[in-house]
Amino acid sequence: MLQSEDFLSPVLGLPLMNHPSIRTLALGSLAMLAAVSFSACTVDENAALLTKNSASGSRAKFQSSSVKTEDKDIPSWSERMAEAKAEREKRAAEAERERQQELAAKKKADDAKARKLAAEKKALAEKKARDEAAREKAKAIELAKKKAEEEKRREAKIAARKKAERERAARQLAEELVQNAEWSQNGGFFSRLNTSHYKSKGHNIYVNRMALSGLSPSNAKIEVDLSEQKARVYKTGGGKKQLVIETQVSTGKSGYTTPTGSYRIQEKRVEKRSTLYGSWHDSSGAAVRSSGEASNPPAGGTRFVGSEMPYWMRVNGGIGMHVGYVPDYPASHGCIRVPSGVQPLIYSKVGLGTQVTITY
After folding, report:
1. Backbone phi and psi for residue 250, each to the nearest 5 degrees, phi listed first
2. Which residues share a beta bridge with 230?
3. DSSP 267
4. Cα(206)–Cα(311) distance, rounded to whole angstroms?
5. Is 272 strand, coil or helix?
6. How far is 126 from 98, CA to CA, in rounded Å?
7. CA 114 to CA 117: how far, in whole Å?
8. Which of 52, 74, 96 is the last residue of a domain?
9. What does the pLDDT look like over 246-295, one tens digit per residue?
10. Model pTM?
11. What pairs with residue 234 in β-bridges?
């Protein structure tokens, strides 16, 4: 049979000693190790063999407290469990700290990313606002430029129109002066009048001779169209009206517009001179260039001669129909000028109270 001494020699790696105290201590240590292995459900082959072949065959009893071997404490099972638990808790705490650190780092990275995105979004919004402001500014500049150009063109048109009106007024005045001079030299307008003809050079005149005989102050009606610069005389009756006379006219120029509305003839005078407009003459009787206004005497002007307004028919206040200079545009001071070839005829066919309608 294998003796315990023989077993200890290879296990301890020492020569077997015959000293009793050494042997006893070694056997006790082996027994304690065997008991620990048994409690952990682990069988140590050498320890089992040693126990089986123990010389005494008795079981070693160990106390639950630590056994001192070579001045070192061997921890008990509960202590080792507590140490293992503490180690697990320590590792768990370290893992939790690492996890918290990772979470904090992730949160920090997420916050930095969010701040970066917010800064990019803000920069994009600011750039968009700047671009929009720049576009609006450019649009406003372009609009102002176009408006200025339009205003410049409009002012140029107004200036051109005023210039044309001044030139027409100058021509009109010159022609009127010549006309008045001719009339004065030849006994006035009435010495030249031939009522048997209804023509006037350069003017469009229409007379319905078949209906003319039936036209009278009781059924006559006059309509003046400012946009067409036409005057028409109608024979009315039975809810109908028949055109009898149509003629070109010249009404109020810019600043002296002929008023629109419905009026009736208030006065008729074959011979009449204007008290407001006409010509100025010097001491020798010669006409002097002027504005043609009675209130504005020119240098050298000593006598004002009002313009003749033959076959005058007062329509409204100082506005009336009469013979006068009729160009192809509005040229009067508000009156309705009618060619000399037809106004005497109209004068003879209408009466006081005859309706005169002026439209545009």
Report:
1. -135, 120
2. 225, 248
3. E
4. 19
5. coil
6. 41
7. 5
8. 74
9. 999 999 999 999 999 999 999 999 999 998 888 899 988 888 998 888 89
10. 0.47
11. 221, 243
Select from 309, 308, 274, 315 the least CA-distant residue to 293.
274
SS3 of 316, please? strand
Strand partners, 321: 313, 336
Burial (CB < 10 A; 0-12, 13-18, 19+), residue 134, is exposed
Confidence of residue 21 (pLDDT cuts 50, 70, 90): low
Residue 171 lies inside a defined structural domain of this protein: no
- Looking up residue 324, the CATH number of its domain turns out to be 2.40.440.10
Residue 246 lies in a domain: yes
H-helix or E-strand spanning residue 269: strand 267-269
Rounded to a whole number of angstroms, the CA Rg of the chain reads 67
Domain co-membership, 199 together with 332: yes
At residue 162, what is the residue type? K
The number of distinct structural domains making up the chain is 2
Using alpha carbons, select from 56, 55, 60, 33 the residue that is nearest to residue 45.
Answer: 33
Range of the domain at 205: 186-272+309-359
